[in-house]
Specification:
Number of domains: 1
Number of helices: 6
Distance between the termini: 35 Å
Bound molecules: flavin mononucleotide
CATH class: Alpha Beta
CATH architecture: 3-Layer(aba) Sandwich
Oligomer: single chain
Structural class: alpha+beta
Shape: globular
CATH topology: NADH Oxidase
Radius of gyration: 17 Å
Length: 183
């Protein structure tokens, strides 16, 4: 697909058909993430590919959290709805450094590196004719999810869902470049 088209047509996909996403497609998306630049080439990303039961379980945990916390007025319920139709879900993690100094100094750069990797993944999904959405709402129950998956020594960054979008989302209104220039 034309690169400009990939950039301008990428949208966060929220509703998917029941068509399968293949293991080869998942691998290609993750591999694209791994090609991203990273601070000092630390490549601070780790991935956990959920199976169908785990995906459903995490979706139910989010619905449950939303029910118990109605006053928080979050987007957690909507996020859980998105997980329902997504074909695959991946949890993304990063390193926790033992040294306090490194944790302080490396963190911001590692988060930036992770953003680069996750955007590569989002763009590769479009290239493959798929859709994806980054889900930070999983962080409301990060500890519960990590305990459920048995993840101990990594920090949860987000969930990432992939599927065949039910329709082509129209372009989202973005801020004008001239309004973003500081000089
Ligand atoms: C760091 C990050 C976290 C996000 N978390 C969520 C989320 O938890 N649930 C959700 O539905 N969308 C989430 N999104 C998607 C945003 O809502 C979406 O990117 C934004 O509305 C712009 O729309 P677009 O991606 O279609 O251009 C997230 C996006 C980013 C970059």
């Amino acid at each position: 697909m034309d690169f400009d088209k990939i950039i301008t047509t990428r949208r966060s996909a929220r509703l998917f058909t029941n068509k399968d996403v293949s293991n080869a497609e998942i691998e290609k998306i993750l591999q694209s993430g791994c090609y991203a630049p990273s601070a000092r080439n630390r490549q601070p990303w780790k991935f956990y590919i959920l199976d169908d039961n785990q995906k459903e379980h995490i979706m139910n945990m989010l619905f449950e959290w939303d029910k118990l916390n109605p006053k928080e007025r979050t987007s957690v319920k909507g996020t859980a709805e998105q997980i329902k139709t997504a074909n695959k879900m991946i949890m993304i993690y990063t390193n926790i450094y033992k040294s306090k100094a490194k944790n302080g100094d490396y963190k911001k750069a590692d988060y930036l590196s992770l953003g680069c990797a996750i955007e590569n993944m989002s763009l590769q999904a479009v290239n493959l004719g798929l859709g994806s959405c980054i889900l930070c709402d999983t962080l409301y129950i990060a500890n519960e999810i990590d305990e459920y998956l048995g993840i101990k020594n990594f920090e949860q960054i987000c969930g990432f869902i992939i599927g065949n979008p039910i329709y082509n989302y129209p372009p989202k209104v973005k801020k004008k470049l001239e309004d973003l220039l500081l000089n």
